[in-house]
């Protein structure tokens, strides 16, 4: 994508950082001071990072089916 002029240097890193920043574990730790995995609804920071990266690297949205595949 960078070769096509769609992304600038650092864009992917920023997107991956954002994906990690909004993981359920990180948000709960920041807001409640503790993490309750049974209440997660959108994935951990690591899961969000991994799925975003998998989709970006493959270029195939089907690779991002979080219900049908494991990380």
TrEMBL record:
Q: Which InterPro entries match?
A: Uncharacterised_pept_Zn_put (IPR007343)
Keywords of the record: Hydrolase, Membrane, Metalloprotease, Protease, Transmembrane, Transmembrane helix
State one molecular function term (GO).
metallopeptidase activity
**Matches recorded under Pfam families:** Zn_peptidase
Positions of the region Disordered? 17-42
The cellular location(s) given in this protein's UniProt record come to: Membrane
Does Ion transport count among this protein's keywords? no
The membrane-topology field of this record reads:
Single-pass membrane protein
Gene Ontology cellular component annotations, sorted alphabetically: membrane
Record's superkingdom? Answer: Bacteria
Annotated GO biological process = proteolysis
Q: Does the keyword Transmembrane apply?
A: yes
Chief localisation class: membrane
Name the UniProt record assigns to this protein: YpfJ protein, zinc metalloprotease superfamily
Q: Which organism is it from?
A: Escherichia coli ISC7
């Amino acid at each position: 994508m960078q070769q096509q002029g769609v992304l600038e240097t650092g864009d992917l890193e920023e997107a991956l950082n954002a994906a990690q920043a909004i993981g359920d574990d990180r948000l709960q730790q920041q807001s409640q001071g503790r993490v309750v995995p049974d209440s997660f609804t959108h994935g951990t920071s690591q899961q969000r990072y991994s799925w975003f990266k998998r989709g970006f690297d493959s270029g195939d949205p089907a690779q991002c089916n979080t219900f049908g595949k494991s990380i």
